[in-house]
Fold DUF3108 domain-containing protein.
Amino acid sequence: MAVAALITLPAAPGGATEAPPLVAPPHHLRLGYDVYVGGIKMGRMTLETETDGGGYRVKVAADAGDLLARLIKWSYTAEAEGQFGGVNGVAPRHFHSLRTLRDKSWDATLEYATPYGTGETAVTFTQTPPPSTDDANAVPPEKRPGTVDLLSAATAISRHAEAGSCASRLPVYDGRRRYDVVMENRPSRHIEKSDYTVFSGEAIGCRVSILPVAGFQQAGRGTQNFWTAAPDGKPRGFDLWVGRPVPGGPVVPVRLEAGELFFTHVVGHLAQVDVLPPR
């Protein structure tokens, strides 16, 4: 559900947009999302989001549920921080992730800096263990400046959707792939509180598409791997609804539906909301 965290200010066709006001209302929330694959609960993702003046911090944590854990040992954590503003609506400073699969782990970091006089953000990626030569060279250096990490992109999308529109385009580099996250408006829907979700109210509809730029392998016929280039050339994506679960709080993802993450239908529900004290 890290993809589900792709949660923007209406942008110009090239992705550039005028920066919104730099001061965002402070908040600190912890959100829990239950993920169902083919109607079976597969696990929970936790998203912690915090703003303080002009800055933001985002953390995600996900692991396999009891059923999936019997088959595979997997977990993922990531965190990002930065400032609001700039051409993309966010200016990340630091991103860190830790992914484990069985007895292996990958520790990755993205650092951002704007060299004096350049006006464009430079991006540095490091990983332990180091990536293979093919992976390290999958995205040419000239395609990395001016990009943001995936969590910072989600932060921009979530914040700017408060204007009532999803339409936007954000350039993302994750250390292995370079792609654009393109958001389009979809019909809104009313969601009722239930045993699956704690959210109740109107939710803004969005279509999230991933447009490959570099580093994507070509998928074979019938392959459903989300992070590959589809054989038919169409961008992969999913439908997302965002809403405001806490009065006066931020707009966040409340429901996700996808048919391309696995071989069957995937649904994510907002199942828990905790309001935390500011740090």
Q: What stands out?
A: Residues 3-275 form one domain. Residues 27 and 38 are 34 Å apart (CA to CA). The chain has a mean pLDDT of 84. The longest strand covers residues 24-37.
